[in-house]
Amino acid sequence: MGDRNVHLVADILTAALPYIQRYQGKTIVIKYGGNAMLDDQLRSSFARDLVLMNLVGIKPIIVHGGGPQIGELLSRVGKESHFIDGMRVTDDETMNIVEMVLGGSVNKEIVSRLNSHGGKAIGLTGKDASLIKAEKLVTESSKDLGYVGKVTAINGEVLRFLSDKNYIPVIAPIGVGEDGTSYNINADLVASRVAEVMQAEKLIFLTNTIGLLDKGGTLLTGLNAKSVDELIKNGTISGGMLPKISSALEAVAAGVNRVHIIDGRVDHALLLELFTDEGVGTLIE
């Protein structure tokens, strides 16, 4: 490596120092989904980034999705996927597959990859230590979504215990009702509630976009509740971005310092967001 490259690497490392100091001992909740979960290279770089964050004293907690994987298995068993208002209708058979995919194959793949890079990851669903208490979600249109739920409580005690012991919790968004019924819950909503309960320094959504764009395609950042309300009213925020934005606003209102929506298709997007001056994506505070 030439002198110029050596100095460049040194400059990058020293520039990261104040950010490492700022976030040391702080909890950062990451909603992991989209292409970042499907591309093998991105999965590996995500795992390395998380382990690095943990090694420098940051306490990451992961909440993951798995919609494409659920859809693929449903298709393989000959069952068609149905959605209402962007949410998967979940009958008995679908719920069994959701648990198999989210709590099984997807969760364990993430855990295994983190551990293979030197992390101490542990996989959880809402059923473990009643981590995610839930009840049936009733939509405004009163359409029956089956076993789709909403969070009623998060067991922060178990997450604090694991984080304090330097474990990385990896959470599948499956909730459990008072009667033991399993519920399929939107991962964005679970990540938001986890961040609220843990009073996280940051909540980061990894997505398949560069962030929130205005109608002209320009990246929007530095948003607050008032500006977000205006963007919803004028139609800039709509569709699949609405649950993320709503979750972000709820998290900030409940004490989470900052929420970021970043492009999970970018290699090492997490490190760029945390440890550089520029950052990436949309900031909501």
How would you sum up this structure, described in words?
The chain is of the alpha/beta class. It is 44% helix and 21% strand. It has helices at 3-23, 35-38, 40-55, 67-76, 92-116, 156-164, 187-197, 225-233, 241-253, 269-275, and strands at residues 27-32, 59-64, 83-84, 87-88, 121-124, 132-136, 149-154, 168-171, 174-176, 182-184, 202-207, 212-213, 219-220, 258-263, 282-284. Strands 5-8-2-1-11-14-15 form a 7-stranded mixed β-sheet, with helices on both faces. It has a two-stranded antiparallel ribbon with strand order 3-4. It has a two-stranded antiparallel ribbon with strand order 6-7. A hairpin with a 2-residue loop joins strand 3 (83-84) and strand 4. The longest helix has 25 residues, at 92-116. The mean pLDDT is 87.
Strand coverage percent: 15-25%
**Shape, per Cα inertia axes:** globular
Low-confidence region ranges: none
Biggest sheet strand line-up: 5-8-2-1-11-14-15
Terminal CA distance? 41 Å
Structural class: alpha/beta
Number of strands: 15
Q: What can be said about the biggest beta sheet?
A: 7 strands, mixed
Count of helical stretches: 10
State the order of secondary-structure elements, H for helix, E for strand.
Answer: HEHHEHEEHEEEHEEEHEEEHHEHE
